[in-house]
Amino acid sequence: MGKKRKVHSLTGRIDDRLMMQAFKAVKKNRGAAGIDKVSIGMFQQNLDANLAALKRDLKKGTFTPKPLRRVWIPKDAKGTKFRPLGIPAVRDRVAQEVIRRLLEPVFEPLFHDGSFGFRPGRSCHHAIDRVLSFHGEGDRVTLDADISGFFDNIPHKLIVGAVAAEVADGNILKLIEKFLAAGVMEGGVFKPTTIGTPQGGVISPLLANIVLNELDWRLEKAGYRFVRYADDFVVVCKTRQQAKAALDVVEEIMTDLGLCLSPEKTKIASYGKGYEFLGFRLSSKSRTMRPKSLEKFKMKIRELSRRSHNLDAKAIEKLNQVIRGTANYFATNFSTCVKLFQKLDKWIRMRIRCMKFKRKSEYDNYRLRQGSFDKKLGLLKLLDFTSSTMCKTCR
Questions:
Q1: What three-state secondary structure class fits 16?
Q2: CA-to-CA distance for 208 and 111, rounded, in angstroms?
Q3: Furthest-apart CA pair in the chain: how many Å?
Q4: Contact 196, 153 (CB under 8 A)
């Protein structure tokens, strides 16, 4: 067998068409401005010149990314735990998207079929469908694994080495190193980044998949079936003994990658009693919103339906955005959320009545009847998103 050929001259593929495609993708994803305070709209005002300058810097290797703007977002509904998010400048997001589009066709054919995160034509729902099919075939015990601070702890050397195993374009490799070492600005103070790839970076999900591809294929070689979505993965087994053996294998792989599992979040569970995966609580009896997802949804609704707020078209629009987003994710052909959606719809209507009349009273149920919410106010219902194919076992 001949020596594997690496991909050369990716830099030569950077042209005006690719630059425009990258910008359009960044614009579609929206997002806030970086530390330079240049928004997408501001960047677009002088688009041709900005893209031409960026293309020149990328091709010559003179591109230097700005530090990311650090923000902290809540990890739980109570707002007691936070995770860092790094927001690159718009110019840097376009540059990352260019590199991502160059690398993705190289690595996509190499990825394992059990990997679903941030890959074309794949989604969280596809990942859950796959794991449910494994349960249907008799694998009822799961190793639900969680990598401790994955994005924050991937060694830069490991990332660049994994890319360099397939790519021989030195300019592209140096650009990736620059993205990783750009640092962050927090409270006006620059902090270097010597480890990890920032959550919020356009290229970070692809780099994560490239690194964890080794995990996938080593699990395959060891004879295990699994489903992975980015750093969240489940190994399915027939017995607890097999799951414990799988845990030993995963821990060994993590050690080799310079990573570790979270002891609190990694557990062996059964499909009978249930476990949590990608926002769902999956069990043989139901597939519904996990408590954390439910509480996050209710927290958003509470924030938008305070009695001190006015009930107007703008308020309804914001509420509908939250309702639509939640329903689109949790109303699937495998979900059992009908009864839960009925309760939540009733709870939301109660919140709206309190918002309109500035009090909580059963008398107001007659003043603002159920039919008025969709006909007069235009408020969406979670239940309306449940299709005829949705599992009805929760009725």
A1: helix
A2: 12
A3: 80
A4: yes
CA dihedral sign, ordered 231, 237, 239, 245: negative
CB-CB contact of 141 with 236 (8 Å): yes
* pLDDT tens, residue by residue, 149-192: 898 889 999 999 999 999 999 999 999 999 999 999 988 899 88
- Reported pTM: 0.90
Residue 32 CA to residue 200 CA, distance in Å, equals: 11
Rg (CA), the chain: 24
The pLDDT score that the predictor gives to residue 89 is 96
Residues in the chain: 395
To the nearest 5 percent, what fractions of the chain are helix, strand and coil?
Answer: 50, 15, 35
User: At a CB cut-off of 8 Å and minimum separation 6, what does 220 contact?
Assistant: 112, 114
Instruction: State how far the alpha carbon of 288 is from the alpha carbons of 332, 351, 391, in Å.
Output: 10, 23, 11
List the structure tokens of 334.
Answer: 């495998």
User: Are 36 and 66 contacting, i.e. CB atoms less than 8 angstroms apart?
Assistant: yes
DSSP state of 382: G
Position 369: which residue type?
R
pLDDT at position 395 over 50: no
Q: How far apart are CA 247 and CA 232, in angstroms?
A: 14
- Calpha distance 81→388 (Å, rounded): 38
Joined tokens for residue 326:
């939640």
Strand order in the sheet with 232-237: 225-229, 232-237, 141-146, 267-270
Q: What is the 3-state secondary structure (H, E, C) of 164-228?
A: HCCECCHHHHHHHHHHHCCCEEECCEEECCCECCCCCCCCHHHHHHHHHHHHHHHHHHCCCEEEE
Q: Work out whether the CA dihedral 354, 359, 365, 367 comes out positive or negative.
A: negative
The answer to whether 337 and 394 are in contact (CB under 8 A) is yes
340 in Cβ contact with 289 (< 8 Å): yes
pLDDT, mean of residues 103-116: 97
Helices 338-357, 313-330: inter-axial angle, 10-degree rounding: 170
The pLDDT tens digits for 313-362 are: 999 999 999 999 999 999 999 999 999 999 999 999 999 888 888 888 77
